[in-house]
Specification:
282 residues; alpha/beta; three-stranded mixed sheet; globular; binds citrulline; arginine deiminase; transferase activity; arginine deiminase activity
Length: 282
């Protein structure tokens, strides 16, 4: 999840968010569609500067504000894409947008998660190429995890489910990726107190070094201080304003680029990882 980013699926905030009402989408008072669109442009500039090629989801005015968070409606594997099924009702149309994009791009579809299964991409963390850790919480259920296992076990991939806490409740967004961001094959940024204990132990047993995100910044940012996108091993994009977390990553050898994202990320519960669906990494 931290190899050099080559191709990534994104959806512009300017097309997805202009009519969104914060109360409907569970966005905070800091949400401002114009400001979010400008902040999204800054993220786009950083992604392009990394050398990655952006594939854009459709730009029609469909009112699907959360579709900017392209990490969640599909999962990429070495065997093709898996079209997921959203736990948040307002997001149920999004996997169809991803499937259409993959067909256009010529990316094979390995399978689909079907009702009553639910899986969101933010709950899926690859630990090496043969292990997928999946958070079981308000967005991803056991039926969905079983369907993922049915698709991936025949490919020699083990799927492990881990319970997540309820934390801020059923309406809020807490994914497994809310408490871990891979920074390199052997390095990850974590907020350990909210990591499932067995997952923490698996990471340690596999020799993955854990950088602790600052607790005060984690709470002040609604968890977004920890949501960091690697564009290559130890090259990361993070939300601006969290110097202790950035310093901890720098001490671990990371080069950190930041962009202002109060209206786009902190208000809308999704950071640079959530705003990108990597299609190809090397
Ligand atoms: N992977 C992620 O953590 N995605 C964040 C999604 C935020 C969006 N507002 C949601 O509630 O689904």
């Amino acid at each position: 999840m931290a190899g050099t980013l080559q191709r990534v699926l994104m959806r512009s905030a300017a097309s997805a968010m202009p009519r969104a009402r914060a109360s409907e989408w569970h966005y905070g008072p800091g949400f401002d569609p114009q400001k979010a669109a400008a902040q999204y442009e800054a993220l786009t500039t950083l992604v392009l500067a990394s050398g990655a090629e952006i594939e854009w989801l459709t730009d029609v005015d469909d009112g699907l504000a959360d579709s900017v968070f392209t990490h969640d409606p599909s999962l990429m594997t070495d065997h093709g894409a898996i079209i997921l099924a959203m736990g948040k009702a307002l997001r149920r149309a999004e996997p169809g947008l991803h499937e259409a994009a993959y067909r256009r791009m010529g990316v094979p579809i390995l399978g689909r998660i079907e009702h009553p299964g639910q899986v969101e991409g933010g709950d899926c963390v690859w630990v090496g190429s043969r292990t997928l850790a999946v958070g079981r919480g308000v967005r991803t259920n056991q039926d969905g995890i079983q369907q993922l296992a049915n698709l991936l076990t025949p490919k020699g991939i083990q799927v492990y489910g881990y319970d997540l806490p309820l934390w801020h409740g059923e309406e809020a967004c807490l994914h497994l990726m809310s408490v871990i961001s891979p920074l390199a094959d052997d390095l990850a940024l974590v907020y350990a107190p909210l990591l499932p204990a067995a997952f923490y132990q698996m990471l340690r047993a596999r020799g993955i070094r854990l950088v602790e995100g600052d607790a005060g910044e984690f709470f002040a940012s609604n968890g977004l201080s920890l949501n960091v996108l690697p564009t290559a091993p130890r090259e990361v994009i993070a939300v601006a304003g969290f110097p202790k977390t950035a310093a901890a990553m720098a001490t671990a050898g990371c080069r950190v680029s930041t962009f202002e994202a109060d209206a786009l990320c902190i208000a809308c519960e999704g950071g640079p990882t959530c705003l990108t669906r990597p299609v190809l990494r090397q």
